[in-house]
Amino acid sequence: MTLSKISSIILQVPSWQRHLNSSTIRSATTNKYGIILEEPQKTPFGFLKVILTVTSGLFIGAAISKNIANFLEENDLFVPSDDDDDDD
User: Fold this and answer.
1) Which residues form a coiled coil (predicted)?
2) How far apart are CA 59 and CA 67, in angstroms?
3) Quick one: average pLDDT of 56-65?
4) Is 83 in a helix, a strand, or coil?
5) How far apart are CA 36 and CA 72, in angstroms?
6) Among 25, 49, 51, 72, which one is least packed by beta carbons within 10 Å?
7) What gap in Å lies between CA 53 and CA 78, rounded to an integer?
């Protein structure tokens, strides 16, 4: 799509709909009348969930890569040689 087609599509949307779509992002603490908005919802144990998700993903990924490396070495598709050491 060219830029002119995209801009014509955007211009076809009424301005009040564009305002409604952009107002779903909450960046203010008060509404247009000055009333303080309610406190946003907090996810219980959110940080713990992130930590568990990341660590489980790392462990599962490490197990998969270990199994693939063993498969490649058993079938002689890739065997690391001692000549690859460049620690001289």
Assistant:
1) none
2) 12
3) 98
4) helix
5) 61
6) 25
7) 31
Distances in Å between the alpha carbon of 42 and those of 46, 64, 76?
8, 34, 52
DSSP codes joined into one string, 16-66: HHHHHHHTTS---SB-TTSPBPPPPP--TTHHHHHHHHHHHHHHHHHHHHH
Separation of alpha carbons 88 and 78, rounded Å: 23
Q: Would the pTM of this model clear 0.70, i.e. be above it?
A: no
Q: Residue 16 has which token pair?
A: 């009040």
As a whole number of angstroms, the distance between CA 67 and CA 8 comes to 53
